[in-house]
Amino acid sequence: MTKEKLINQAIVILKKSGHSISERCNIRPRSFDIAAGNDDVLLLIKVLSNVDGLKEDTAQEMLQLSEYLDGTPLVIGEKSRDHPLESGVVYYRYGIPAINIDTLYDYFVEEVPPVVYAAPGGLYVNVDGHVLHEIRLYSNLSIGALASELGVSRRSISKYEEDGMDMSVDMVIRLEEMFNQAIALAIDFLNVDNKVLKNRANPVETEPGLSIKSILSSLDVDVMPVSQAPFNAVSFEHTSSSKNKNVPIILTGFSDYTGAMVKRAKLMSSISEVTKAQSMFIVNGQCKSECVDNTVLLKKSDIEEMEDFRDLISCLYEKVGNVKKCA
Predict the structure, then answer these.
(1) With b meaning 16 or more CB within 10 Å and e meaning fewer, what string describes 119-135?
(2) Are 299 and 287 within 8 A, CB to CB?
């Protein structure tokens, strides 16, 4: 299956499950292909035929963007190396979940979550140790008897029950058939563990990102530069916390006014609608319009007249509101 077909299938599935979809990112390099969101979840999705093609710097940017936009990075693919991705199995690349198109459909349309994940050595399942303990007692089996039946140590059974130690798929199947009760736990792959961000590399500071930092520095604004997105940075009011849902997020670009800038501004507008962020382009030099769709265009001189972040946000809201009134 071509990447084009894979993206189109993902869009159909996500629309069917009630997600709004951004326009496709058509720039290179790109950290994500589409943004998809509903009232409950925001996804930044990268589509790859082979999930091993995900590069570490791309994964880091997806994780960083997801952290600030309060979303989840997700890779949709067909295979890993020469093997197809199995349905109902979650794979991980640099801390980002990767699934095939069938698993996407099962989760979002059929509401059937995966229970199996891939790790070095094979496929594993998270188990409910409390349930296992209860059904063992109900069946009048001692730890030793169950260990003997399964061909494992007593310590392993204790680990399964007390710590919920993960099991191989074969072991879970044997236990569920033995007791005729499910012990597997669903994988909440949308809750990505951002502990991987603690050791992340510093964001790539491109020239546009550095310019945005300099221009917004007097407004007490934090700027996180990005290098593989239609925008050059994510900007937000300086706070003690790097992530605050109550702080407006601004997808920010910096460029001369050109045809390429207008195309990026349109794409930023589409992404901002899905991510519930604001979007603006700081224009270097002459500016021919105030907005491109919902992306506000501001000259550097406009920003120099502002006192703080609130002035900036008020200006953005006012200009977007004027556009909507005229639409």
Answers:
(1) eeeebbbbbbbebbbeb
(2) yes
Q: Write the single-letter amino acid at 281.
A: F
Q: Are strands 34-37 and 83-84 parallel, antiparallel or unpaired?
A: unpaired
Residue linked to tokens 């639409």: 327
Interval 134-186: pLDDT, tens:
999 999 999 999 999 999 999 999 999 987 788 999 999 999 999 999 999 99
Asked if 113 and 188 count as a contact pair (C-beta separation under 8 A), the reply is yes
Question: Cα 101 to chain center, whole Å?
Answer: 16
DSSP string for residues in 78-143: EEETTEEPPTTEEEEETTEEEE-HHHHHHHHTS-----EEEETTEEEE-B-HHHHHHHHHHTT--H
Helices 143-150 + 154-163 axis angle, to 10 = 110
Q: Are 268 and 251 in contact (CB under 8 A)?
A: yes
pTM for the model: 0.90
Instruction: Give, in order, the Cα–Cα distances in Å from 167 to each of 112, 150, 163.
Output: 20, 12, 12
E strands, 7-71, are 20-21, 34-37, 42-50
Q: For position 321, what pLDDT does the model report?
A: 79
pLDDT of residue 94: 92
